[in-house]
């Protein structure tokens, strides 16, 4: 916990992240890397459950380029 708190403070001090007062939050899961340092992983499962799918998804760029192939 101390190491995670230190990493959060360091990221705030360096402008990497900032405090949020929004209505949504996702838990941080600290995971120890092979070298012993900590990596933060964010568990977005609850947020993903309530996220609405885009009704009009953007076309893929390769499909658009294929459709334009041969156009003048």
Automatic annotation (TrEMBL):
Transmembrane segments: none annotated. SUPFAM superfamilies: DNA/RNA polymerases. Coiled coil: none annotated. GO terms for biological process: DNA biosynthetic process. It comes from the Eukaryota. InterPro entries: DNA/RNA_pol_sf, Rev_trsase/Diguanyl_cyclase, RNA-dir_DNA_polymerase. Gene3D superfamilies: 3.30.70.270, HIV Type 1 Reverse Transcriptase, subunit A, domain 1 (3.10.10.10). PANTHER family: REVERSE TRANSCRIPTASE DOMAIN-CONTAINING PROTEIN (PTHR24559:SF444), TRANSPOSON TY3-I GAG-POL POLYPROTEIN (PTHR24559). This is Transposon Ty3-I Gag-Pol polyprotein. It comes from Araneus ventricosus. The lineage of its organism: Eukaryota, Metazoa, Ecdysozoa, Arthropoda, Chelicerata.
């Amino acid at each position: 916990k101390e190491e995670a708190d230190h990493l959060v403070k360091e990221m705030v001090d360096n402008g990497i992240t900032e405090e949020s007062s929004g209505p949504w939050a996702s838990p941080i899961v600290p995971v120890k890397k092979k070298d012993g340092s900590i990596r933060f992983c964010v568990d977005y499962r609850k947020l993903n459950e309530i996220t609405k799918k885009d009704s009009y998804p953007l076309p893929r760029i390769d499909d658009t380029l294929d459709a334009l192939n041969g156009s003048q």
